[in-house]
Amino acid sequence: MPILNGPITSDGAIIELVVCVSEPRRQALQNAGKPIPAPVVIRALIDSGATSTNMVASVIQPLGLSASGTVQVITPSTGLAPVTVDQYDVSILIVHPEMGKFFDTVPILECQTLSSDFHALLGRDLLNYCSFFYDGPGQFFSLAF
Amino acid sequence: MALEQELATFERELPRLLDRAGKFVLIKGEDVVSTWETYRDAIQEGYRLFLLEPFLVKKIQAHEVPHLFTRDIKPICRS
């Protein structure tokens, strides 16, 4: 089982993701004779307080995504009344030096801004496929998948 | 706004879809196309049938459970 180890930064546990169009969308683009958008490499905060994975809109804009769903969302700024946001299907690779973890079709949400140091939150939808260890005294984390 | 018609179809057809709660429905325009066990299967069928045209995949739930974020992510809202 591959294990990613990293330091706990001032933001928390940060990992690197490669994001591209979902595998079904890639096949549709190929069948239509259209170019496949280049993958986007982004830094993501591991966030167990997030139901699902989301990404800053401007960072994934080059993928030319079209919404394929909607979900309701509650955040500190929405209050208790949920808001409806678009969902997009992408593929995500958790980067690892030897063997990354690839999810070929993942629904993600867009958000406006996060941080200058990361542009995505890795939520529990994908964390559920991993084992996450947070060593506070040692100030490092391990993500096994 | 994208998927307006599909979302209206979903709301209209939801009572009839509830016997398949937990599954994922594929909707195009005013038509409920099919239901699938997994999100991936529904998405794959959507692209197979409709290529790059818009389609909706949504989980069938009597009451939609919101996604919660403890971080203030400022989502991009449809409305």
Name its key features.
heterodimer; A: 145 residues; mainly beta; six-stranded mixed β-barrel; three-stranded antiparallel β-sheet; 10 strands; globular; B: 79 residues; alpha+beta; 2 helices; 22% strand
The total of helices of chain A stands at 3
Helix content of chain B: 25-40%
The strand count of chain B comes to 4
Mean pLDDT across all amino acids of chain B: 94
| Spatial strand arrangement across the major sheet of chain A | 2-3-8-4-7-6
Largest sheet of chain B: 3 strands, antiparallel
Structural class of chain A: mainly beta
Computed Rg of chain A: 16 Å
What form of chain A results from the Cα inertia axes? Answer: globular
Topology as H/E string of chain A? Answer: EEHEEHEEEEHEE
Q: If strands are numbered along the chain, what order do they take across the biggest sheet of chain B? A: 2-1-3
Structure description:
The complex is a heterodimer of chains A (145) and B (79). With 145 residues, chain A is mostly beta strands. Chain A has helices spanning 23-31, 57-60, 124-127, and strands spanning 3-7, 14-21, 40-46, 54-56, 69-74, 83-94, 101-111, 120-122, 131-135, 140-144. Chain A has a 6-stranded mixed barrel. A 3-stranded antiparallel beta sheet of chain A has the order 1-10-9, with no helix packed on it. In chain A, β5 and β6 form a beta hairpin. Chain A is globular and about 50 Å long. The termini of chain A are close together. Chain B has 79 residues and is α+β, with helices and mostly antiparallel strands. A 3-stranded antiparallel beta sheet of chain B has the order 2-1-3, sandwiched between helices. The longest helix of chain B has 14 residues, at 4-17. The chains are: A mainly beta (145), B alpha+beta (79). Chains A and B meet through α1, β5, β6 and β7 of A and α2, β3 and β4 of B. β5 of chain A pairs parallel with β4 of chain B.
